[in-house]
Design goal:
Elements lengths: L17 H14 L10 H14 L7 E4 L7 E6 L8 E6 L18 E3 L2 E3 L3 H20 L8 E6 L9 H8 L1 H4 L3 E4 L4 E5 L2 E11 L1 E10 L3 E2 L8 H13 L9 H14 L1 H12 L4 H8 L2 H7 L2 E9 L5 E2 L2 E10 L5 H12 L5 E4 L13 H14 L5 E6 L5 H6 L4 E3 L4 E3 L11 E3 H19 L3
Parallel strand pairs: 3-6, 3-7, 7-17, 8-18, 9-16
Antiparallel strand pairs: 1-2, 2-6, 4-5, 5-19, 8-9, 10-14, 10-15, 11-13, 12-14
Length: 456
């Protein structure tokens, strides 16, 4: 799930290339295949891309569509290399979030080009990136490119939700098909645009851990005409009020520290000064207060926990016997889940409020950035957009990278598509990407893939 993918890309103006034209055709085909969990068909999209690879000359054994259940197909393609180094995996997901026709001015599964944008469900999250990967692998075959190691492309199901997550299933049941030294996940990272200008290229090198807690208060209840102070809803409300006023401590680590340091020179002004101060003195109260007021930077600095769902009572004329709330936490990858739970219990401060994990968190053991991958992303960025800085980033959302990292495959988020920081439409109405940005991303992804492929 890309919450954020923003950068402007500046390439020389010129006619659309044959590779960009092919990528647009792939993009259109993918958008117009509904791949939602409720009514879509991921297998149909996987088979459509598989047909392209077979037609391009990939051996049938190197193009596989595997599905744990009907409609949840995953595509795995392998381009064989000449060396013995472990493969590189390139990852995208084919599924998209739900889109109601009533919410859109046209069918959300119709691919439209309008006023310099491509519109459709999945344009930014993330069928545009899928199309750039497919185009790159087709181009390498057409040009008889021989990588120094095997390259693997996996386009999967149920990243956005559902019971058949493709990456988890492949890593568990078909590890040999996707086993790699590291993975480039195009569902994260990407370019940032601010006020119409390219700002920086983000490379996701870490992501937060998703963990929800259930808060529950039980009571004997009674008749509403005889109220008492011991009320399940009041207990819960008081505890949530204390949580609302609480902030977890600031905890910078190498990724966020590097992001703040590089971003300080990009933004300037008070924001730039505060980012610089945080690197030099992460305990500075003024900088912490100002950055905490900005949701993006607040989430970068600390673990966050927020109430997202609430329920209580069973009848209008009865005292509540049960009150519950869901608190969703996004843990820094260097924080401890058990310690977060203990902190929640202390902050809520009421023994009558039971706190329990709703499911086991997918813990992603954190490793420092691989300088080899950072160097390749930096070189490809410089080739396409000279002078544009590359900033390591922590994704505050979640992606399928968690399953690969848990399986021992380091994963880095890199997308060539740029978006506007102030106009993020992923998962929303009228989802779109810039036409120019998509075309440029086609060239960027090919350059990055082949650059990495030459390295042993």
């Amino acid at each position: 799930m890309r919450l954020f993918a923003v950068i402007l890309c500046v390439l020389p103006l010129g006619a659309q290339t044959a590779d960009q034209k092919l990528a647009r055709e792939i993009f259109k085909q993918l958008i117009e295949i509904n791949t939602t969990d409720s009514s879509g068909d991921n297998t149909r999209a996987a088979e459509a891309m598989a047909a392209r690879f077979r037609a391009a000359g990939y051996p049938a054994g190197d193009v596989q569509v595997l599905a744990p259940v009907e409609r949840k197909g995953n595509l795995v393609v392998r381009l064989h290399g000449t060396g013995t180094a472990r493969p590189i995996l390139f990852l995208g997901h084919l599924d998209v979030v739900e889109a109601r026709r009533a919410d859109w001015p046209w069918d959300p599964f119709e691919f439209r080009e309008q006023e310099g944008y491509f519109y459709g469900r999945g344009t930014s999250d993330m069928k545009g990136d899928d199309a750039t990967l497919v185009a790159a692998f087709l181009r390498m075959k057409r040009e008889n490119f021989r990588p120094a190691r095997d390259l693997i492309l996996a386009l999967t199901a149920d990243e956005e939700g559902g019971n058949s997550n493709g990456v988890d299933w492949l890593a568990t049941k078909h590890r040999a098909l996707i086993d790699a030294e590291f993975c480039i996940n195009t569902d994260a990272g990407g370019g940032h645009i601010k006020n119409g200008k390219h700002v920086y290229m983000a490379m996701q090198a870490a992501e937060k851990v998703f963990l929800s807690f259930k808060l529950e208060v039980t009571n004997n209840g009674g008749h509403s005409s005889l109220p008492q102070k011991d009320n399940a809803i009041y207990h819960l409300a008081d505890g949530l009020s204390r949580l609302a006023k609480f902030d977890f401590p600031v905890h910078l680590f190498d990724v966020t520290r590097a992001a703040f340091e590089r971003s300080a020179n990009i933004y300037g002004g008070q924001l730039g000064a505060d980012l610089k101060t945080m690197v030099q003195n992460p305990a500075d109260a003024g900088a912490i207060a100002r950055l905490s007021a900005i949701p993006f930077y607040n989430a970068q600095m600390r673990t966050t926990c927020v109430a997202t769902m609430l329920a209580g009572g069973h009848a209008e004329n009865a005292l509540p016997q049960l009150a519950t709330a869901t608190v969703n936490c996004r843990l820094l990858p260097v924080d401890n889940a058990a310690e977060v739970k203990r902190t929640l219990q202390e902050v809520i401060g009421d023994a009558k409020i039971q706190v329990s994990e709703m499911r086991e968190p997918v813990i992603t053991p954190y490793k420092p950035i691989d300088p080899k991958v950072m160097a390749a992303v930096t070189a490809s960025t410089a080739k396409l957009w000279p002078g544009l800085p590359v900033v390591p980033a922590m994704d505050t959302g979640a992606s399928d990278g968690i399953y690969l990292i848990r399986a021992g495959i380091p994963t880095y988020g890199v997308s060539g598509i740029f978006g506007d920081e102030d106009d993020v439409r992923a998962h929303g109405r009228n989802e779109r990407v810039l036409v120019k940005s998509f075309d440029e991303a086609v060239d960027f992804v090919y350059d990055l893939v082949t650059r990495l492929a030459r390295d042993q």
